[in-house]
Amino acid sequence: MYVVKTCATCTMDWAILFVTIFVLSDAVPMKRQAYSNGTAYLPCPSTKAQNMSLNELVVFWQDQQNLVLYEHFLGTEKLDNVNAKYLGRTSFDGDNWTLRLHNVQIKDMGSYTCFIQKKTPTGSIILQQTLTELSVIANFSEPEIELSQNVTRNSPINLTCSSKDGYPKPTKMYFLITNSTNERGDNMQISQDNVTELFSVSIRLFLRFPDGVFNMTVVCILETESMNISSKPYNLVPESQFVRENQIQSVASISVMCCSVLLLFVFLVAKKCCKKQNQPGRPRGTTYTLEQDGSADRKSINLKELEPQITSAKPNAE
C-alpha cells in the first residue's frame, strides 16, 4: 500500500518539489526505556537497505509532532531541518544505525519514527520506517524519616517520611514498625514539578510507645511500578531513657580513660626506677681497655695510676 507525501528534506536542496512515495510499515513498534538525564537509543534497522551505503540514502528521525531530531543526508550530517530543541542532543551510530538522544527529560517520552529514503530522479522512496515508543523513568531519592519533636514516653510521636525527583507517579508509601507487618501512615501527599515533571511524595505518622516498650525501630517504604525503595532504619528512644543511657556511656568512657592514664603513669614510673637501678657506676681503680685506630693492639690503662700525672699537668695548662 502506498501514499503520496511531500519530502521534508528536499525543499532546501532541489529547485522543484519532489514527491515521496511512502511505503507503509506493518512492523510492531519497538519499545525503549531511558533514565532521566541519561541517553535514549532509537534504532533504525536497515533490513530493506542492507546492500546500500549511507552515501546513497537519506536517514532521519522525527518525533510524534513531526519535528526532526537528526538527518543523515547522502553520507553527511545535515542540521538544516533539525528542530532547535534537539540541536546538540543527538549523535548517530552509523555501524548500528541507531540515534542516541542525550540528556533525556520526562517530556521526551513518546513515539519516534526513523525513515530510510532513497533518492530517485522523480522523487524519494521511503524504503523503510521504524516506530519506537520511548518511556522515561527517574529513580526516587531514598526515603528520609524526620522527627518533628523530641521523643517522650507520654507524648505522641510525629514522624514524616519524604522522597523526591522520581517518575512515574508512586503507587504507595508507608511505615513499618519493629516486629510488625502492618502498614502505617496516612494521607500520602504527591506533588509534581511543572518544569521537570518529576514527582515528590510524603506521608505522616502519629504513634505512642506501647506499655512495656522502651524503644522502637521504624522504616519507610516507597513503592513504584518497577521497584520498592526503603529508608534507613530510624530508632525511637524516649528522651529520659536516651539521656540516662548517654550518662551511663559517658561515665563508662571517663572511667576507662582514667584507668588507662593511671596504668600509663605506673608503667612510666616503674620503667624509670628500673633504669636507675641497672645503671653501672665507675669504681676507683677501674682498668679500661682502649683500642687504637688502625691497629689490632689493645692497651690496658689504670686510671688510678694516671691521676698524679693529670694533677701535675693542670698548673702548666693554666
What is the first-to-last residue Cα distance? 131 Å
The structure class reads alpha+beta
Using the CA coordinates, give the radius of gyration. Answer: 43 Å
H-E string: EEEEEEEEEEEEEEEEEEEHEEH
Largest sheet: 8 strands, mixed
| Helical amount | 10-25%
Strand content: 35-45%
Number of helices: 2
Itemize the secondary structure elements and their pairings.
Blueprint: E1 2-6, E2 19-23, E3 30-35, E4 40-43, E5 57-63, E6 68-73, E7 76-77, E8 90-93, E9 98-101, E10 110-120, E11 123-137, E12 144-147, E13 157-166, E14 172-177, E15 186-192, E16 199-207, E17 216-223, E18 228-230, E19 234-236, H1 239-278, E20 287-291, E21 298-302, H2 303-317
Parallel strand pairs: 2-11, 3-11
Antiparallel strand pairs: 1-2, 4-9, 5-6, 5-10, 6-7, 8-9, 10-11, 12-13, 13-16, 14-17, 15-16, 17-18, 17-19, 20-21
